[in-house]
Design goal:
Blueprint lengths: L1 H28 L5 H21 L10 H6 L1 H20 L2 H8 L2 H13 L5 H20 L4 H24 L7 H20 L4 H6 L7 H27 L2 H22 L6 H24 L1
Helix pairs in contact: 1-4, 1-11, 1-12, 2-9, 2-11, 4-8, 4-9, 5-12, 6-8, 7-13, 12-13
Length: 296
């Protein structure tokens, strides 16, 4: 019985880890750094799979009006900025570093909500945000070998991610289901990425990519598109059967699992101070979740 209740969260963690590892492999190991092509493939695959499974009734997509899609357009722009900047950062930074700085999106969300909606905050919430901020800043200052690009891109990523969460919470199109929101995100992102592929030169760069005819490259790209879709379904399934706090705990566990396992899969240099920053950052995230539980 307990295993049945835990299965949605465990499945989410599995797809979360494998999806990030696959993306990291294509972007960092194979060095396929042409985001409009890679992300265009992922979003078009996600849109197609959502559309087909919705038509067959395997997932619930009731459809949406053009006006609803237009109201959701800012959310789709934040989503595109989130995945584009995230892919650029993931190609450069180790996975544990990526999650430490990504966690600052919680700080972005916290500040925007506090400034716009005047929501009160407990001392525990402020302490948790401070822990995550200080650990991330210390990690960056102690690991400057990745250059400014990785940290700039991950900063854009966390801003878009945090802004997307705020928009999702306050949008007038909140009658859209998570899958309908994601379908709009996929469709708009695919259109914009395809439109930008030629002007950015990614098309010509991809044609000259040395692994273009490699089965490893094709397998990685195919898996990235499929796993992204399965991660979406696992996330929606988990949210439908558990409270937001339980979901937040599963997301934290998934990040810790991905960070811990990544050091055995990818080359990652970790000093004692870096390990301390990573652990402190995740402790701050756990404290943030606990403060939300107390406030409720």
């Amino acid at each position: 019985m307990n295993l049945v209740r835990l299965s949605p969260g465990l499945i989410f963690c599995l797809f979360f880890v494998v999806s990030h590892f696959t993306n990291k492999y294509v972007l960092s190991v194979l060095k396929f750094t042409f985001p409009t092509i890679f992300l265009g493939w992922q979003t078009s695959t996600g849109a197609l799979l959502l559309y087909v499974t919705g038509k067959f009734g395997w997932v619930e997509i009731n459809g949406f009006t053009r006006s609803a899609a237009l109201l959701w357009l800012p959310g789709s722009i934040f989503f595109l900025g989130n995945i584009y900047a995230g892919s650029k950062a993931l190609a450069i930074l180790p996975i544990p570093f990526f999650f430490v700085i990504q966690n600052l999106s919680e700080l972005v969300f916290f500040l925007i909500v506090r400034l716009t909606q005047r929501e009160p905050s407990s001392w525990m919430k402020i302490l948790s945000q401070t822990l995550m901020l200080m650990s991330a800043v210390t990690l960056i200052m102690h690991n400057l070998q990745f250059g400014p690009n990785g940290y700039i891109w991950v900063s854009i990523h966390l801003f878009c991610f945090g802004s997307y969460r705020v928009f999702q919470r306050s949008s007038k199109s909140n009658h859209l289901s998570d899958l309908e929101q994601q379908l709009i995100n996929y469709m708009i992102s695919t259109f914009l990425l395809v439109s930008a592929a030629h002007p950015t030169g990614d098309v010509f760069g991809a044609l000259e990519f040395p692994f273009l005819m490699s089965y490893k490259f094709h397998s990685g790209c195919f898996a990235s598109g499929l796993l992204g879709f399965l991660l979406l379904l696992a996330s929606v399934k988990m949210k439908s059967g558990q409270t937001p706090l339980q979901c937040a705990i599963w997301v934290l566990m998934a990040k810790i699992m991905a960070s811990g396992l990544s050091v055995f899969v990818f080359i990652t240099e970790l000093s004692p101070l870096t390990v301390y920053c990573i652990l402190t950052n995740h402790a701050g995230e756990a404290l943030s979740i606990y403060s939300d539980k107390i406030q409720r």
